[in-house]
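Q: Focus on the chain.
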Amino acid sequence: MSISIRLLAQTDYLKIIELAPDDDIMSSILFSIAKDGKDCSDKISYTYGAFIDDELIGFVYGFVLPNKTLLPQYLYDR
């Protein structure tokens, strides 16, 4: 088993949707994060994913403030 943490690539954002439980509210939030991450390259918001053998098992999504402070907005794991 190989565990890695890395910045999500454009092709990884669909994997966020696969994490969604059978809860409409959580599914909506995860879909919104996936869409924002895939469509946006603003250099302000970032999503880092935790992977086991190339399977996304969780992520942290947040913003970097002008003083380089990370402001996490969502932390999600399976």
